[in-house]
Amino acid sequence: MIKLISSFVFLLYTLNLTAQTPPKFEHFKIDIDAPMVNFFDAIEHIKIIRLEETEKTLLGEIDHYFKTPSGFVIPYMPINKPARLILFNEQGNYINEISKSGLGPEEYRNISDAWFKDGHIALFSGWSRRIQRYTEAGEYVGSIEARYDKSISGWAMIPYQKGYVFHQIGTPPNGNELIFTDNL
Predict the structure, then answer these.
(1) CB neighbours of residue 45 within 10 Å
(2) In angstroms, how far is CA 104 from the centroid of its own chain?
(3) pTM for this one?
(4) In a domain, 127, yes or no
(5) CA–CA separation, 96 vs 173, rounded Å?
(6) Kind and range of the H or E element at 42?
(7) 113, 117, 61, 65: which is closest to 86 by C-alpha?
(8) How far, rounded to the nearest angstrom, does the alpha carbon of residue 77 sit from its chain's CA centroid?
(9) Please, what's the largest Cα pairwise distance for the chain?
(10) Does 177 map to a domain?
(11) Closest to 107 in 3D by CA, of 127, 121, 137, 135
(12) What is residue 174's predicted lDDT score, i.e. its pLDDT?
């Protein structure tokens, strides 16, 4: 009987090991011995977009932006001012802004990350532990509570396949981790 139970436990253990699949990473090989290429010869074209200047769109440092079907969004997170998302059309004209910093049900404490997916602008607040969704025009649609373990700081997050990948900062032993989830 003990031998049968041991065999059954071993079978369950091996099934559990084979059910896990490692995340797939893209690899890009860099040839450090390749011939040098002039930077401008490698560029096909450059497009300069003038941003409309208003009281709301005077920006300091811009880290990144993301495209939407009707234009693009610039996450703007100045020090000592509320973080916001500024929406522009394809010509660089101001459309609207998402500026709901606070502790209320439709508000966020910070902007850890933002992206466009499934027809909506998504804003992830690591401090609020939720994803808020907006229309392309910046109207609030709803929010999804992030139900990941409280030990995960979830500082930065982006969609990945059918789930998300978190960048957790300051965790031992190396100080940085990528955490892959299949859902929230």
Answers:
(1) 4
(2) 22
(3) 0.69
(4) yes
(5) 43
(6) helix 39-42
(7) 65
(8) 15
(9) 79
(10) no
(11) 127
(12) 59
d(CA 161, CA 146): 17
Q: What pLDDT sits at residue 121? A: 95
CA angle, 94 then 68 then 169, to 5°: 100
Domain range spanning residue 94? 54-146
Cα atoms found within 13 Å of the Cα of residue 134, Cβ hemisphere only: 26
Distances (CA, A) of 82 to 71, 78, 98, 114: 23, 7, 11, 15
- Residue 44 tokens, joined: 């096909």
pLDDT of residue 104: 86
**Is 3 part of a structural domain of the chain?**
no
d(CA 53, CA 49): 12
Beta strand 120-125 pairing with 113-117: antiparallel
**Predicted confidence (pLDDT) per residue in 132-182, tens digit:** 999 999 999 999 887 777 777 667 788 888 888 877 766 566 567 777 777
Q: Is the pLDDT at 15 greater than 50, yes or no?
A: no
Quick: pLDDT tens for 44-93: 888 888 888 888 777 777 888 899 999 999 998 888 888 899 999 999 99
In a domain, 170, yes or no: no
β-bridge pairing 113-117 and 94-98: unpaired
Residues facing 74 on adjacent strands: 86
The count of domains in the chain is 1
